Amino acid sequence: MEIKLIAMDLDGTTLLPDHCSFSPALISALEKAHQKGIMIVPVTGRQFGMLPPILKEHPVWENYAILCNGGQIRNAQTGEILHSLTLSDDTLKALLALSREYNLPIEFSANSRLHLTQESVEAQRLDPTIAFHVNTILPEYGIIEQSLDHMCTSKDLPIEKVNIQCVPAELRTTLEQRLQGINVSAVWSSENTLEISNIDATKGNALGKLCSILGVPTECVMAMGDSGNDISMLQLAGLSVAMGNAPDFVKEHADVITDRNNEDGAAHAIERYCLSSN
70 by DSSP, 3-state: which? Predict the structure, then answer.
């Protein structure tokens, strides 16, 4: 099987623990893959404007980007939107009501900004597991709203994704069950963060659509990930790679396990499965 496309998650997979940079070994591997004619596609829950600095510079090896957990596909060089899915007004109202029922912080993601109330910010500050989000992402991309009610009916600002955070362990199953009745795609991007999108917006669905557009058989795709929102693309790809730092329930869906993201696991996988002549 010859790999023609590398679909790579960012946070926890290719990005170092600073959530901002790639290692020199990974950059070298990506450049070599590009020179070999392999397409490189970041696949992330982030929005286009919230990509890490190295991708905002549009390196020559970056071809397309799958964003918002599959809610959007863009040409990484031009920013052109090839495919987009958003959440309906009724869905947004139901999600907002659910967050209020359980007193959980919620964010509406639109146009590369995160809209939330000050109450949600304060709640997130109490959760050490999302310190990078609170200390780095929100100061740059967060917009404080008095309420999110008006955004449930805004025609000028389509909502691509909703985050419900700081979910205690005892509520996980309950929320999963409640969301089944709201007709959405919901994935755990971390142990206590739910990322919610249009029912058809998954990384796997978007990767399949992009492969169809490009004429690349899915069996010629190598996908790399570490979290629950990566499972759908791991299931689709001809070769699925889980990071050493991935939880067991993600590793169960991978063909191979590589090293951790801070041990050049992604670079090692590319070298072995895409660049090696053996």
Answer: helix
